[in-house]
């Protein structure tokens, strides 16, 4: 029989319903696996007491035949979601000791549907990073990292970021699924790096209420899972209208799993020529071609499209996102929550608190944001970036006159080692070159595992869709998943 | 244009982050690298383009101006380092 931790969410639900095992057994299996793999540093806080209580409640519902959509499924929660009574850090020193007195809308909905919380997952500080190396709680190590015979890592690979703990936990079988958030690629890029599925829904699909804010016009929550079907199941629970988020959209949430019919005949798949970037490894290009062939074989029609402003997406993002961050992170001042470092007066207390509480990358982004919003520079930088953003969004609107979805690689490379790409912030930012445009335009995007690099590391393909058409994105992702076939397990998973 | 040490010190002050003088030079270098890179936005023709402030086309919703939540000050101040009688305390501001 398959190990309990290796089940998909869909199979676990079937097993629970058939009374093959209990939710407590399923949860305990995950807690044991977590205890045995602390070296990955995937979890910041483990919540076994909460988990076992929720699992027992789920078992009671199964006994009465009153089970819910995700009843008894053990999940990890990115530590950017506020969880009532459970420490929430955003992986920052400045939130030391913060215990939210409220629950985020997304986690409220997951718990409403019976999900079990195993703990809070590590991430880049305030979700700012693409390698999960900026966490105050230390880097997350990918379960794909090679070891020698003595069991020591010979190279520590990054799991991607910012949802690196979520990616590592799901790939390493330390959770059946996890929540992520995606501001510039933070669900899709780590999903690609560890060989799992991740979807960033359309902006407005999942409530942002109770998620620690990074860049409010770009942030979206989404599921990270091992199969497209699991992503469909989890997204249905996470999504939906919330009056507490003024940008939440009041639209019905479809049954995404029902959309996974495998039938994509006649679908037009846009292939953007501008995504053939200089220096992209040949194996990424090859994988992309393979993806096109798979979709063609399933009856879809590839269409070459143009997204002419693609190369301006990253620089526009690196103005808009830091500007919003500098405003959002103004609240961390040592007065109402988290760290306080005293000073001789109020102003010095603010400055000391923020100097000690924020890490280097967060400070850098706050300062860029402060600069581009400051008097005399606002028009030249911030307003200009917002106008470029409008042109990028317009590119997609025009492209969708010719196609129904867009297929691209998720990231320009496979995972790299911790410590590499550290000297040059722009080299790190380039990780998100294919994912950032969807955030700027607010579009749904999915990463699905499609193969391995020459080094044997996972590579993902990205499917972008029209606004609020996650169903088609998942349907196409499912076809790629089926065509790619079963993918190997990470070496640390047995 | 380039950010000099004095400009970086001014930004740090606006952002309320204490930066020691000895770090200003290096920080200026890092910020300049990023600011020079984003200069490429100047190549984009944005004549007659409205700045995009939100991807959601909908207007913000209205609701009645009524109290719908609250009444638990002890929960509100529960995370403060220094809370006295349900107030946030700060160093003395007015002499």
From TrEMBL, chain A:
The enzyme's E.C. designation: 6.3.5.7
Family annotation (PROSITE patterns): AMIDASES (PS00571)
Domain of life: Bacteria
InterPro entries given in the database record: Amidase (IPR000120), Amidase_CS (IPR020556), Amidase_dom (IPR023631), AS_sf (IPR036928), GatA (IPR004412)
Every Amidase domain range: 25-474
GO biological process, alphabetically ordered: translation
GO cellular component, one term: glutamyl-tRNA(Gln) amidotransferase complex
Nucleotide-binding keyword on record: yes
Active-site residue numbers: 78, 162, 186
Reaction catalysed by this enzyme: L-glutamyl-tRNA(Gln) + L-glutamine + ATP + H2O = L-glutaminyl-tRNA(Gln) + L-glutamate + ADP + phosphate + H(+)
Keyword ATP-binding on entry: yes
SUBUNIT field: Heterotrimer of A, B and C subunits.
Function: Allows the formation of correctly charged Gln-tRNA(Gln) through the transamidation of misacylated Glu-tRNA(Gln) in organisms which lack glutaminyl-tRNA synthetase. The reaction takes place in the presence of glutamine and ATP through an activated gamma-phospho-Glu-tRNA(Gln).
NCBIfam families the record matches: gatA
Record-stated family: Belongs to the amidase family. GatA subfamily.
Designated name of the protein: Glutamyl-tRNA(Gln) amidotransferase subunit A
Species this protein is from: Nitrospirillum amazonense
From TrEMBL, chain B:
Gene Ontology biological process terms in this record: glutaminyl-tRNAGln biosynthesis via transamidation; regulation of translational fidelity; translation
Record InterPro entries: Asp/Glu-ADT_sf_sub_c, GatC
Enzyme class name: ligase
Enzyme Commission code: 6.3.5.-
GO terms of molecular function: ATP binding; glutaminyl-tRNA synthase (glutamine-hydrolyzing) activity; transferase activity
Top-level taxon of origin: Bacteria
Keywords recorded for this protein, A-Z: ATP-binding, Ligase, Nucleotide-binding, Protein biosynthesis, Transferase
A Pfam entry, by short name: GatC
Catalytic activity: L-glutamyl-tRNA(Gln) + L-glutamine + ATP + H2O = L-glutaminyl-tRNA(Gln) + L-glutamate + ADP + phosphate + H(+); L-aspartyl-tRNA(Asn) + L-glutamine + ATP + H2O = L-asparaginyl-tRNA(Asn) + L-glutamate + ADP + phosphate + 2 H(+)
Family under the similarity heading: Belongs to the GatC family.
PANTHER family in alphabetical order: GLUTAMYL-TRNA(GLN) AMIDOTRANSFERASE SUBUNIT C, MITOCHONDRIAL (PTHR15004:SF0)
NCBIfam families: gatC
Purpose of the protein: Allows the formation of correctly charged Asn-tRNA(Asn) or Gln-tRNA(Gln) through the transamidation of misacylated Asp-tRNA(Asn) or Glu-tRNA(Gln) in organisms which lack either or both of asparaginyl-tRNA or glutaminyl-tRNA synthetases. The reaction takes place in the presence of glutamine and ATP through an activated phospho-Asp-tRNA(Asn) or phospho-Glu-tRNA(Gln).
Self-association and partners: Heterotrimer of A, B and C subunits.
Name of this chain's protein: Aspartyl/glutamyl-tRNA(Asn/Gln) amidotransferase subunit C
Originating organism: Nitrospirillum amazonense
Gene name per UniProt: gatC
């Amino acid at each position: 029989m398959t190990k309990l931790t290796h089940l998909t969410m869909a199979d676990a639900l079937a097993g629970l319903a058939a009374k093959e095992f209990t939710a407590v057994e399923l949860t305990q299996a995950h807690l044991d696996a977590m205890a045995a793999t602390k070296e990955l540093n995937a979890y910041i806080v483990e919540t076994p007491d909460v988990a076992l209580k929720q699992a027992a409640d789920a078992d009671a519902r199964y006994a009465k035949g009153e089970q819910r959509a995700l009843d008894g499924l053990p999940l990890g929660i990115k530590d950017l979601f506020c969880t009532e009574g459970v420490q929430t850090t955003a992986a920052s020193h400045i939130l030391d000791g913060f215990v939210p007195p409220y629950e985020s809308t997304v986690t409220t909905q997951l718990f409403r549907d019976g999900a079990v919380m195993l703990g809070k997952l590590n991430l880049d500080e305030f979700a700012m990073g693409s390698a999960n190396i900026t966490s105050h709680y230390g880097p997350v190590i990918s379960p794909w990292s090679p070891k020698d015979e003595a069991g020591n890592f010979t190279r520590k690979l990054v799991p991607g970021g910012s949802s690196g703990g979520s990616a590592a936990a799901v790939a390493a079988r330390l959770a059946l699924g996890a929540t992520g958030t995606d501001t510039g690629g933070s669900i899709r890029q780590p999903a690609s790096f560890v060989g799992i599925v991740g979807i960033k829904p359309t902006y407005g699909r999942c409530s942002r209420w109770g998620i620690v804010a990074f860049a409010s016009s770009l942030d979206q929550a989404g599921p990270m899972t091992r199969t497209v079907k699991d992503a469909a199941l989890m997204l249905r629970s996470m999504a939906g209208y919330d009056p507490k988020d003024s940008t939440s959209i009041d639209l019905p949430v479809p049954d995404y799993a029902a959309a996974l019919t495998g039938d994509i005949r006649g679908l037009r798949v846009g292939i953007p020529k501008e995504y053939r970037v200089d220096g992209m490894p040949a194996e990424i290009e090859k994988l992309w071609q393979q993806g096109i062939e798979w979709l063609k074989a399933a009856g879809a029609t590839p269409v070459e499209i143009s997204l002419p402003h693609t190369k301006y997406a990253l620089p526009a993002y690196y103005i808009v996102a830091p500007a919003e961050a500098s405003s959002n992170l103004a609240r961390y001042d040592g007065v109402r929550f988290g760290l306080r470092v005293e000073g001789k007066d109020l102003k010095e207390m603010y400055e000391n608190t923020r100097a000690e509480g924020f890490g280097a990358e967060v400070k850098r982004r706050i300062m860029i944001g402060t600069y581009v919003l400051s008097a005399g520079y606002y028009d030249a930088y911030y307003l200009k970036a917002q106008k470029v953003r409008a042109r990028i969004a317009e590119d997609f609107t025009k492209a969708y006159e010719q196609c129904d979805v867009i297929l691209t690689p998720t990231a320009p490379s496979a995972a790299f080692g911790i410590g590499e790409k550290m000297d040059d912030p722009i080299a790190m930012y380039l990780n998100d070159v294919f994912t950032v445009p969807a955030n700027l335009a607010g579009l749904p995007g999915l990463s699905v595992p499609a193969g391995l690099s020459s080094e044997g590391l996972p590579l993902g393909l990205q499917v972008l869709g029209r606004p609020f058409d996650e169903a088609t994105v998942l349907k196409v992702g499912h076809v790629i998943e089926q065509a790619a076939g079963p993918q190997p397990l990470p070496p640390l998973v047995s | 244009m380039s950010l000099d040490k004095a400009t970086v010190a001014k930004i740090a002050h606006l952002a309320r982050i204490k930066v020691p003088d000895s770090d200003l030079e290096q920080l200026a270098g890092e910020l300049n690298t990023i600011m020079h890179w984003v200069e490429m936005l100047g190549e984009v023709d944005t004549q007659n383009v409205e700045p995009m402030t939100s991807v959601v086309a909908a207007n913000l919703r209205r609701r009645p101006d009524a109290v719908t939540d609250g009444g638990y000050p002890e929960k509100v101040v529960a995370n403060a380092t220094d809370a006295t009688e349900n107030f946030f305390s700060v160093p003395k501001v007015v002499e």
